[in-house]
Amino acid sequence: MAELSFEERQRVQEDLHGVSAEIVEDSALIDACLRDLDVHLNSMKEGSVYAIAEMMGSSYVRNRDFRLSFLRSNQYNAKSAARQMLNFFSLKLWLFGKEKLAKDIAFSDLDDDDKQYLQSGSMQILPMTDSAGRQIVFHCPGVQPYKCVENLLRAKFYIFMCLWKSQETQKRGYVAVSYSIGRFQNSRINGACSVHQKSSLAMSFPLYVAGGHIYCADNVAHCVRLKAAISNMSVSQRARFKLHLGSDQDFQDSLSTFGIPRQALPLDHRNYEPQFGRFLVWYNQQLRREDRHLAFQYPTDSLLRPEKNDVLFVLGRKVSNAGNDYLRSLAQARFEDYDLLSSKKKLMVADEMMHEIKRCGGRFLKQDTPGGLWKEVDESEVRSKIMQMFRNIRYRRTIQDKSNADSRLTTNSSPPPPPPLLVTVDHQLDPNDIMFDVQELSWIHDAIGEW
Description:
Shape: globular
Distance between the termini: 72 Å
Number of strands: 10
Order of helices and strands: HHHHHHHEEHHEHEHHEHEEHEHHEEHH
Radius of gyration: 34 Å
Strand content: 5-15%
């Protein structure tokens, strides 16, 4: 972390905790970045696999959205995006062959061994998102059945391809959770699949990990191996990965502080063993969709997932969701008038603000426990929370006004006047005591005149 600038460290911490600001893409900036990307690619592509792919399918390789995804994953650094594009096509050639270079990878491009790994659920996109609305990818290394490293990488490539289809995920990244304990710790992690081969996919694909959490219980040796793997990453990537020790409960409690609800994890909470029922339902649905040439669909369930326009009530934490920011701006704008209204009219203002959020497509959601399930807040509670928001504004302004008044008083106050000079007369003056020489009086008169 010390190698990163203050702004970079701030961005990493915001990404880890899911409080980073929404990314707004400026069309002029994007056009400039795409031009720079083209310049870098032209200077690097000679003799590369990228050049072969461009000859095979220029419309695919030069597609604006395709290129933009590489810029997004590299925070709009054109040179880094160009290098990643070259690595992407080199990896794709190795895994799928030349004929797939200028095509998206589909489920039908996987062989039976690849599908066996995919069906195991060792790596899966979870139905629930984190508190910031980002996709969570769950990885359980110990249950990964593959004959060779290519099986594992082709299946993971397909999963990343599914993630990549979402522009929101391209912009905000995804959250990775790796769960490896007990019999789910697998020595093959460090066998045929080398650290370089495992990390090449993540570094070549146009997606970035906003936060990574790896649980290795109390296995110190396994933790050392994982640290060695993380050390091969770039400085920015290393800062986004957290190793967790301790019990299963400790791990899940820790995840909840990063906005990852424990209910999202596909674990049996009685024995903490992975469960793959929901994933298999999605897997079979995906097979049917591809057979009918339908678009990819993220796994979903009946659980509520926060969206950017929602207002989220989280105990003890200020939420930077767009819906929360909009509600706060409404309260600030209406406070002066609101504070003078009767109780009945205050309730009407709260009602208007509630309906304004709903008009913009937002909902009011809350968690009863940190990291728990989201549920909708009923209208009476919403009104109560909005009115409490106004009381909080009044309290903060009162404190601020008092602080300003004390500051002005300290600045403007002048030092107190000196006490009057008291002269003590020990005896009654005799008129004969007050005698002046005429010449002395003349000298005093002349001195005063000079002053």
